[in-house]
Amino acid sequence: MYQTDAKQIVGISLLVAAMILQIVCILLTRILIKLEYGGYMAVMRTWLFLSSTMEHVFYIIFHVNYTYIKSGDEQPDTCILMRFLMSFCSTFTTMWILTIAAFYLVMPIKPEKCLSSIVRFLTHCVALTWTFVSCLLYLVIAFRLKADNALEYIHSCWNDISNTLHFYNCYGNEIIPFLVTAFILVNARFRISTHKRTMSSRMPEYHVNVTQLRRTINRYIVLIVFLFIYYIGLYIRFVFDKRGSDLVMMAMQCGRSVAIAVTVCLLDKDVLALIFRRPFSTPMLLLHPNEIGLQSLSTELTLVECT
């Protein structure tokens, strides 16, 4: 007998819609990169949207598996693997938000450092290292518990997971990166507010619009507030309802994705200019001094074409 109802179908449909929204953000970001807008920040955003898309792919597979699973027929191996893949992509998404936040923190202090290939390499290393370590730790412990026949800690995959290892894996390995991200963004916003005059005199050399930089950081702070509400809501959800899959759970996961897409992509000034076919603003992100003349020429040509 299969556990299906209309609510689960609605929830899965929401996840599919959220995944499509992430794909749209990937396409918009790649178009900006081809138009030479966004720079390395657009590359990091591409990774963010890509990991968020994969996160939803595994969310959908997980919830579909729950929706059509036979009653009482739980398979620990399948559960562990699915939760590992979900957690890996979710943590990778959070880590890219962290690296973008760190990029904004370094920008007002030493703009030239953001141009370094070493810094770009380190951002990928940090994002991958934490994701691999935290998620592989779950995987190792889970299979170790299975080998020791401690099935009570891993057996319940979709129902009553609050006392299992899966409860940690739902969001435990994202909490530390999330808190670090919040601290970095608040610090970056405070630094811009207190050193606005100094930055306004230095940033034009690197083609950085301080006002636009401040607005962008404000958007990420709004995203952090939404994610904070998401984590608190997730915890409350498990306190009152121990199931690992239902409409509320799927709606919350969809909401997280929509918050990322709206704040990072759809409210971006260059994305709005692309959608509504308006002239692009002066690029906010860093350019090497040798590239500024080329970018300015490109901007002028764009303005001529639009007029």
TrEMBL record:
Gene Ontology CC annotations of this record: membrane
Membrane topology, from the record: Multi-pass membrane protein
Keywords: Membrane, Transmembrane, Transmembrane helix
Matching PROSITE patterns: G_PROTEIN_RECEP_F2_4
G-protein coupled receptors family 2 profile domain ranges (all copies): 4-268
Any one GO molecular function term: transmembrane signaling receptor activity
Residue stretches spanning the membrane: 12-33, 45-64, 84-106, 118-141, 220-238
Name assigned to this protein: G-protein coupled receptors family 2 profile 2 domain-containing protein
Species the sequence originates in: Dreissena polymorpha
